Amino acid sequence: MKSDIQIAQEAQMLPAADIAAALGVEGDSLIPYGKYKAKIDHRLVKRLADKKDARVILVTAISPTPAGEGKTTTSVGLADALHRMGKKVVLALREPSLGPVFGIKGGAAGGGYAQVVPMEDINLHFTGDLHAIGAANNLLAAMVDNHIHHGNALGIDPRRITWKRCVDMNDRQLRFVVDGLGGKVNGTPREDGFDITVASEVMAVFCLATDLADLKERLSRIVVGYTYEGKPVTAGQIGAAGAMAALLKDAFDPNLVQTLEHTPALVHGGPFANIAHGCNSVIATKLGMKLADYVVTEAGFGADLGAEKFMDIKCRLSGVKPSAVVVVATVRALKHHGGCPKAELGVPNLEYLEAGAANLGRHVENMQKIYGMPVCVAINAFPTDSAEEHEFLREYCTQLGVPCALSEVFAKGGEGGLELAEDVLGIMEQREPHFAYEDSAPLKEKIEAVCKKVYHAASVTYSKAAAKALADFEAFGFGNLPVCIAKTQYSFSDNAALPAAPEGFAMNVRDARLSAGAGFVVVIMGDIMTMPGLPKKPAAENIDVDENGVISGLF
After folding, report:
1. Residue 47 class from Cβ within 10 Å (0-12 exposed, 13-18 middle, 19+ buried)?
2. Closest C-alpha to 165, from 132, 193, 199
3. This prediction's pTM
């Protein structure tokens, strides 16, 4: 079979203007970025305020494994299947980060015959949104250090600056640095560090803001550090919010591209779900809800991370209400959760599959029982799957009380997603989402609600630094914020070595960070890092471009 990039490069794309016209977007609302990419003026959402909102379909997955799950591929294929059925549908996805593109994934725009295109552009610089977010983040960092250098009128304690610089790359060397060396003229020496851009609070603010005024207000609330008296200092006090918003003004307009089957796709914003809230921008989701009858969107990593944050953060803060949830699983990944050696993942084995199916079961039950959502399961098919394994999963889902469809969108595009689309339409129901905790609950109670209800932990422990930080946040008036848990994506626990559906473990809170602009508290568990590193053999080694500008190696 052809590689993803070969399929994408052979695609016959329609001009972005044609894709927009099919949605009724034209004139000044469409901002072309070449022939096949465009932005849509975010203010169109308000101009269409009286139009009925589309139904939102959330695609999530089991806990990820090296065997692969295919959540984005399934999202694309499901949107294409609905399009084939004559439904007016918009796909709403996150933008890929250069870190994973050059690290492990090599590309994050779907796969096979279920992709968004132009694939190379989307995976690399796209329309420059992530660069703008990084620039806004680093402008604030520069202005904080500049304020200290020129007299420090706010009395910022250099030892308690919490704002980090960022870069959209996996670079472990930058996790901990000392800067400001070289004498007084070159700044104040202090410990510092970098986050990956997608973990920046600016990214979270960007993805949760509803318009430019809200964006600027959220930016102004960002806490960058503390004074010698222990009081928080904000970006608004530094005087940076206006300039940061100016850098983000054009980026804030959602990006319009298309799938291989010409289904409209809004690809906008890109926070990681293991260290941020993991959902595409609210403004893109709401724009899709005004332009179509159905919006297919996804939340990063497993349902314990992305879908939990979609519900407890994005839905809570934006009012978006899913009408259906799809949990994606693969036979290979479930066998991995069941203890199957990597070399045997392609060999039919019901024993390993049965052991690993508990991971799927827990994700399904969480979405049903905790969040009150109608759920169906998509089995993302691999050629090595056996009919017996597929039948086992169908029977397992029957026992869970949810429909289960075989998804063959990787090989067949939208045609391979028709069974799944029928299941989704069959369960679709407008419900008020439930949440894992109440706004009024103390921060520790919110953390423990997620850990015990969603993860099935027995207890939660806190480092002294984390416990003090949480107490301080409540004292500063931020106790009403939701929590955004940063942990490994490979397990319900904070230990990547505990697959399937572990019980009775302890969750360990190492640190807590205030994201007052985004509107949540980040809770860091286990050994999770906000700046990833590259693997031994990064995908970047296989990426190349020839003399004609044709890119290869993005798989």
Report:
1. exposed
2. 193
3. 0.96
